[in-house]
Amino acid sequence: VSVLGIGHGNKLLTDLYNCHLTKVYTVGGLFGKATDDFSDTGKLVEKTTFDHITREKLERILAVIQGTNHKALLMHSNIDMKTQEAYELAVKGLIRPMGKSPPIITVIRCLQFTLPEFQLEIHCLHETQQYLRKIVHEIGLELKSSAVCTQVRRIRDGVFTLDDALLRTQWNLQSIQNAIWDCQLKVKTEIEKTLGPRDKSVLHKTDTEMAQAADS
Amino acid sequence: KISSAACGYGFTLLSSNTADITKVWGMGLNKDSQLGFQRSMRDQTKGYEYVLEPSPVALPLEKPQQTRVLQVSCGRAHSLILTDSEGVFSMGNNSYGQCGRKVVEDEIYSESHVIHQLKDFDSRVVQVVCGQDHSLFRTKKGAVYACGWGADGQTGLGHYNITSVPTKLHGDIAGVNIIQVTSYGDCCLAVSDAGDLFGWGNSEYQQLASVTDTTQVNVPRHLPFKIGKIKEAACGGTGNIVLTEEGNVFVWGYGILGKGPNLIETAMPEMIPPSLFGWSDFNPDIRVAHVRCGLSQFAALTNRGELFVWGKNLRGCLGIGRLEDQYFPWRVTVPGEVVDVACGVDHMVSLVKSF
């Protein structure tokens, strides 16, 4: 999922960035090897056994990772925990760092596990591809083995999911217009929810531009 | 392998289900011999008033290599130890009869060797609970016995005097099969097998205000909350918490109840949103499995082995890495699966299974 903005959408992109929404990735990994850049195309550094690894052990390690990241989440969110607003935000799950911060993982789950391969679903903020590969490598180390990352696929970027994405065959004007139309409401609600009600005129302008684009 | 832990007011007891001779260890304050007699290394005739590391507690068992210790509980200055075949042992302060034996005037509790054995119940005791200065015993037949300080009605025996012999409670729980009792301060709660909740004791903080305007209740009363079948309850000093069959957590009473700094007092149970325990659209299977109370803290254990705490953070007892009070459930990062937790006044002990 890669988000593109057209015209006024470019300005909305900045707003979306400021919402600091989570992105979701499916990350594929392979036990038994370690490479210098943590992916399976890098230079092989080490080979290890992995028969002792079970799904249960993997899930426990994932729980620990989620726990430590939870604490980092709080530290970077800059919210005073003693306020009622902090409670309201926590209930809604909106305690998130709203500024620059190191990568934080909010949810990490194991989707598939067939030795030596495994697939994880990772929800994160402010990540880089290298960070995700490094997580795979570290999981391998924690399980007393080693792992390399075979695949990183973004399946969700904020409000945009795989279902909203256009396939290569759909790269034509009509589909693009339809897609923009469908996502419009989602984008508006998310920006409003996180950044607060915006200047009504700005959003109204978006609506008229969309209407014009649809007509042409 | 430690199977049970309990935190008192400044001391801790740990026990194991083992058949070895040493089954219980204690540490902390021992000014009232709540940890038994701890012989001093420097002077063999004297005992320690402060025990700085887990030390064996010697129990006068008839069959030390067969009897097993099932559970321990600690109050302000006394403790109870439950065994499977030799009844209940009580140690510590007995100024109000909380150890289940006759009050001896001017008894000196420091460096005392006295450990009393209690066996006179209608059936085998399956749970022991220490309140601040009283003791509760739950038997296999579902009855509840109490002894100790009763000025707040916490013994539930219909009077406000002290009781020095465990006596059966009646009131609304007569004939009811009670499956759990809990207390830590001066208020008590009991849960029946049908999912009903009963309470007695102190109600100065609205703990029992749902059934009475008085500040003390000395007979067990049914609390008619319509929140579902109750599975487990826990009493703190000023607040109470229950867990329902559906896995929802309700709090009421006074203090930091867990719904932000604005909720400090309520007579009717309020539910804590499950999203605070990690429940979400991505994780819909998370449920709270157990709830526990300290004097002014609450703890909840989820079915994933995660520990959430909230309440007053005296001396950092919540373990969240900060020293400020926590107004809503916050996850404690523990390197393992939390199996059980015991809360005290200003410290907490958790039993954790490593990954």
TrEMBL record, chain A:
Top-level taxon of the source organism: Eukaryota
Residues covered by the Pseudouridine synthase II N-terminal domain: 3-128
Family in the record: Belongs to the pseudouridine synthase TruB family.
Organism whose genome encodes this protein: Struthio camelus australis
Protein name: Putative tRNA pseudouridine synthase 2
Biological-process GO terms, alphabetical: pseudouridine synthesis; RNA processing
PANTHER family noted in UniProt: PSEUDOURIDINE SYNTHASE-RELATED, PSEUDOURIDYLATE SYNTHASE TRUB2, MITOCHONDRIAL
One GO molecular-function entry: RNA binding
TrEMBL record, chain B:
Listed Pfam families: RCC1, RCC1_2
Assigned GO CC terms: mitochondrial inner membrane
Signal peptide residue numbers: none
Highest taxon above the source species: Eukaryota
A GO molecular-function descriptor: rRNA binding
An annotated GO BP: positive regulation of mitochondrial translation
Gene3D superfamilies: Regulator of chromosome condensation 1/beta-lactamase-inhibitor protein II
RCC repeats: from-to residues: 22-85, 86-141, 142-194, 195-246, 305-354
PANTHER family attached to this UniProt entry: RCC1-LIKE G EXCHANGING FACTOR-LIKE PROTEIN
Name this polypeptide is given: Williams-Beuren syndrome chromosomal region 16 protein
Species for this entry: Struthio camelus australis
